[in-house]
Structure formats: structure tokens, C-alpha cells
């Protein structure tokens, strides 16, 4: 398939689901025009990129998340580092699967380079899910979305700000938010009435080996997610959680990618980081997965 054919295929996918979007400037509904742009009723226009993603930011944004960071994140994800977490999320989605409708819509809010969304939707496909699955990824970092669009053309990818999301109300059956900031007001608005939010947060032992090396004898050497869990619980009538803990042995090349991808390294001293780059190490993965349902709705 040529590049033009691939782009046409991605534009058609956007066109099929154009009712999902709202303009981030005026809030009006949107349509795909000439398979080249997404345009709202008042004429605000967002071009479909050559990679097939759409930049729906209402203003330019600068982030510290660059191409090298997302390349490292993709390599770590491809190594199987997060596979146990993705298996558990897949299991919960299958448990909550609804028989109504022809398509299950999953939004990954803060999707980065798209590995988690792609991995989970692939797992759902292999588990003989009765419904079709539409994966939608959004992130404020354009470099991550560009990479996601190249690697997983079967999903919809958008550069967008979670505080001003480009989606209409009640569009998604599941909203995933994995190791990324949240906006619960927007989650509640975009989530279907019987939908579920899946939020993954670090546990106290997450990457503890790096934390201890980078931040010895400082307050950042330890971590608690208590306040994050309490905030999540205040936004949902029903909340469930599970903790996932395991260790992964990384070689020196994988360690370099792990250090490059984690914001933990941003505050570490260059000397300590330099020493760690050439080490092989066992790394602790300690994650808490939170599941929340909208207030005053039925539960599974």
C-alpha cells in the first residue's frame, strides 16, 4: 500500500467517526472535508497530517517530551516491561464488556507514542471480543502522536489538550489514563453513562532502584500515591483497585532507554545518571490500577 493510500485510509477512518469530535475553539460539531481536514460548523479548520493524525490544539504547546524520549518509551514497551499491567486491564475490559452496540470505543488520554493502547486493543482482538474495537489516542506531545500514527494506522490519533478535549459528550465506553495526568471533569463528560475510567498510577515501589540512586536522602527518595487515590475516589460513586507488582531484569541498553523515558531522571545529577546508564539491573514495577464508574449509574 502506497503512502497516499495509507493516508486516504486514515482519513476515511476519521470521516466515519467525525461525529465523535467537537471543536476545541467554539465547541461546535465537526466534519471531515475532502479527506484532508476536520472543519467545524463555524469554519475552524484542522488539517490531517501526512502521518494521518490531527492536531486539535487551540494554541501551540511546548513540552519536555521529545522524539528521543518516545523512542526510548517504545523500546521499553516493546520489551514486555508493561505486559502484566496490560493483561490485567484487558481482563477488566472483557469482564465489563457490553453486548449492546457494534463497536467498543476506548480512549487513551495521555497515550504517548501509543504502545499501551495498541497493546491492549491487540490483546482484546486475540481474546475473541464480540464487538469491534475503536482505539483513540490523545496526547499533548506532538512527537508521541506522530510516532503512534506511523506505527498503528488502524486507530485515531490526536494531538490535544486534556483540559480542552476535542471529543463530544458520552463518546467512550472506556477511558484509560496510564501514568499520566488526569482531568476528571473531562473524563466524566466524555465517558458513556455506563462507561469505566481506568487510571494507572505508580505504587510506592515503582522504579524504586532509580529513585534511590537519583534522590538519595531527599524527600523524592520515597513516594506515596494516597492523595491520588483519594482524589480519584471523590469523582466516582464506585471505585475498585488492584496492585500489580513484579521485577524485570534489564540489560545496559534497556536501562539507558528506561532512564531516558522516565521523568525521574530529570532531577537526577548527571554524574549519577551517567554511572547508571551502563549498568544491568533488576527493576521493580509497582503499579496501582484504579477503576471508576460515573456517579448515579448502574454497575457491572
Automatic annotation (TrEMBL):
KW S-adenosyl-L-methionine (keyword) present: yes
Transmembrane segments: none
Keywords: Metal-binding, Methyltransferase, S-adenosyl-L-methionine, Transferase, Zinc
Record carries keyword Transferase: yes
Domain annotation 23S rRNA (guanine(745)-N(1))-methyltransferase N-terminal: ranges: 21-57
InterPro entries in the cross-refs: 23S_rRNA_MeTrnsfrase_RlmA (IPR052939), Methyltransf_25 (IPR041698), RlmA_N (IPR048647), rRNA_m1G-MeTrfase_A_prd (IPR016718), SAM-dependent_MTases_sf (IPR029063)
Name of protein: rRNA (Guanine-N1)-methyltransferase
Organism: Paenibacillus glucanolyticus
Amino acid at each position: 500500500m502506497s503512502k497516499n493510500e495509507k493516508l486516504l485510509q486514515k482519513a476515511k477512518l476519521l470521516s466515519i467517526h467525525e461525529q465523535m469530535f467537537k471543536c476545541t475553539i467554539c465547541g461546535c460539531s465537526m466534519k471531515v472535508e475532502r479527506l484532508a481536514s476536520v472543519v467545524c460548523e463555524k469554519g475552524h479548520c484542522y488539517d490531517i497530517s501526512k502521518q494521518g493524525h490531527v492536531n486539535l490544539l487551540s494554541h501551540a504547546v511546548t513540552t519536555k517530551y521529545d522524539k528521543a524520549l518516545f523512542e526510548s518509551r517504545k523500546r521499553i514497551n516493546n520489551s514486555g516491561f508493561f505486559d502484566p499491567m496490560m493483561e490485567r486491564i484487558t481482563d477488566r475490559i472483557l469482564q465489563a464488556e457490553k453486548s449492546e452496540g457494534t463497536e467498543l470505543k476506548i480512549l487513551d488520554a495521555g497515550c504517548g507514542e501509543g504502545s499501551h493502547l495498541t497493546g491492549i486493543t491487540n490483546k482484546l482482538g486475540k481474546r475473541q471480543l464480540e464487538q469491534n474495537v475503536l482505539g483513540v489516542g490523545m496526547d499533548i506531545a506532538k512527537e508521541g502522536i506522530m510516532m503512534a500514527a506511523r506505527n498503528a494506522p488502524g486507530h485515531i490519533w490526536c494531538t490535544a489538550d486534556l483540559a480542552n478535549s476535542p471529543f463530544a459528550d458520552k463518546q467512550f465506553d472506556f477511558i484509560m489514563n496510564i501514568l499520566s495526568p488526569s482531568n476528571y471533569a473531562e473524563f466524566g463528560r466524555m465517558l458513556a453513562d455506563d462507561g469505566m475510567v481506568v487510571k494507572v498510577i505508580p505504587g510506592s515501589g515503582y522504579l524504586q532502584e532509580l529513585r534511590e540512586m537519583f534522590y538519595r536522602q531527599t524527600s523524592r527518595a520515597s513516594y506515596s500515591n494516597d492523595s491520588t487515590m483519594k482524589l480519584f475516589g471523590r469523582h466516582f460513586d464506585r471505585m475498585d483497585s488492584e496492585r500489580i507488582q513484579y521485577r524485570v531484569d534489564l540489560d545496559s541498553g534497556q536501562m539507558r532507554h528506561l532512564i531516558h523515558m522516565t521523568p525521574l531522571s530529570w532531577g537526577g545529577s548527571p554524574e549519577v545518571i551517567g554511572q547508571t546508564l551502563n549498568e544491568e539491573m533488576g527493576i521493580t514495577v509497582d503499579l496501582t490500577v484504579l477503576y471508576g464508574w460515573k456517579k448515579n449509574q448502574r454497575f457491572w
